[in-house]
Write a structure and sequence with these properties.
Blueprint: E1 2-7, H1 22-34, E2 38-43, H2 55-72, E3 76-81, H3 88-105, E4 125-128, H4 135-138, E5 148-159, E6 162-167, H5 177-183, H6 191-207, H7 213-236, E7 246-247, E8 250-251, H8 252-263, E9 269-273, E10 281-283, E11 289-293, E12 312-317, E13 324-327, H9 332-344
Parallel strand pairs: 1-2, 2-3, 3-5, 6-9, 9-11
Antiparallel strand pairs: 1-12, 4-5, 5-6, 7-8, 10-11, 12-13
The structure holds manganese (II) ion (MN).
Manganese (II) ion (MN) binds next to loops.
Length: 352
């Protein structure tokens, strides 16, 4: 009976998502169902894909999948939805809802701070719901909506007596936060500033430029230019060079530095994150810092003959000392058929 189960990067709606296959949806749902009572389910970012799929496709796929998932896994306590970069727009819409719509309707709190985004308290967990029933709640089956919490950009909690920090992981990606901050000539000293740079960047590139055919073509061309400039940009953001040990391509020093900066407490913690789609883990020599990645369910390179997808589920039992990474085996035939469909839709697939 796990205290915690975490999955990330389902990319629901994207043609390259393994979850576009019904058999995979069923095996994931069945696997979670077999775990019995799950106290907390963490949906750790890029659950909906609003970059590679039209909004309506993403909503419909997600709603159908959640129906199936929560039918099989019908003993889940709280569900924590932590948006990533592909579903950051969910957070923007929710922020607007809380700061604009709900106060107008007289049903919500007004932040009273000149429309500033409600990024939460010193615990770094902006939370929506269950007081507010927002459009995101409507994607989930009615029976569980009162247990759905939306948190961004971090969710900090205790597992046993250990501090766990959950964050999608896009803040660590050189082409997202570090590049945006470089452009803004900023170096954040708090979370709100980091999010300001992040939101400006991914809302325009990942979301607003993918809303229609013309904007998509524009983005594709921009992406072509980006690929030509990539080495230079990496150098400019100081993302080149060995940079010490890496996890999923991200220097560990960058991850721990950012957590330290945002958390302001050099304490012991376990960081759960996704984004890289690579289910690696690392721990400091003394074991005080543990980094655990939740893998991903998207075929990032559908052109490859043997696409690698690290479809894993992270399970934390009540009495266990550590989180366990369980791989859900997916048939090679299924992976090949999703990759085939993704290849034909590849024109619109951008970035991870
Ligand atoms: Mn991501």
């Amino acid at each position: 009976m796990p205290a915690l189960v975490a999955i990330s990067d389902l990319h629901l709606g994207a043609p390259s998502s393994l979850l576009s296959d019904l058999t995979v949806q069923e095996s994931l749902a069945e696997h979670l169902g077999k775990l019995g009572r799950i106290d907390n389910l963490l949906l750790l970012g890029d659950i909906l894909d609003l970059t590679m799929a039209p909004r309506l496709t993403a909503w419909n796929k997600a709603s159908a999948f959640f129906e199936l998932l929560f039918k099989a896994a019908n003993n889940i306590g709280n569900i924590h939805y932590i948006p990533g970069n592909h579903d950051h727009h969910v957070w923007s819409m929710l922020s607007d809802y809380i700061t604009i719509v709900a106060p107008l309707e007289g049903t919500g709190r007004n932040s009273g701070e000149g429309g500033r985004r409600p990024l939460g308290d010193p615990m770094f967990c902006g939370e929506v719901g269950p007081k507010h029933e927002t459009f995101l709640h409507c994607l989930f089956p009615a029976a569980i909506r009162n247990r759905l919490h939306i948190r961004y950009p971090f969710y900090r909690f205790l597992l046993g007596n250990k501090l766990v920090i959950a964050h999608h992981g896009h803040y660590f990606d050189w082409k997202i936060c570090p590049l945006a901050m470089k452009i803004a000539k900023a170096s954040p000293d708090n979370m709100e500033q980091a999010e300001e740079c992040n939101a400006a960047w991914i809302e325009s590139l990942f979301y607003l430029l993918t809303i229609g055919r013309v904007s998509r073509t524009f983005l594709k061309r921009m992406y072509g230019i980006y690929q030509k400039l990539e080495f230079g940009l990496r150098w400019w953001t100081s993302a080149t060079g060995p940079g010490g040990k890496k996890l999923g391509g991200i220097p560990i020093s960058r991850i721990t530095r950012l957590i330290h900066l945002l958390q302001r407490e050099p304490t012991e913690y376990t960081l759960l994150f996704g984004h890289t789609h690579s289910a690696e883990r690392w721990q400091s020599k003394a074991g005080s810092i543990k980094l655990v990645n939740t893998g991903g369910w998207n075929i990032d390179d559908p052109r490859s003959e043997h696409p690698v997808v690290e479809s894993v589920i992270l399970v934390g039992e009540h009495d266990a000392d550590d989180l366990e990474t369980r791989k859900l085996q997916i048939d090679d035939d299924i992976i090949a058929s999703v990759a085939e469909k993704a290849r034909s839709a590849l024109g619109s697939a951008l970035l991870s």
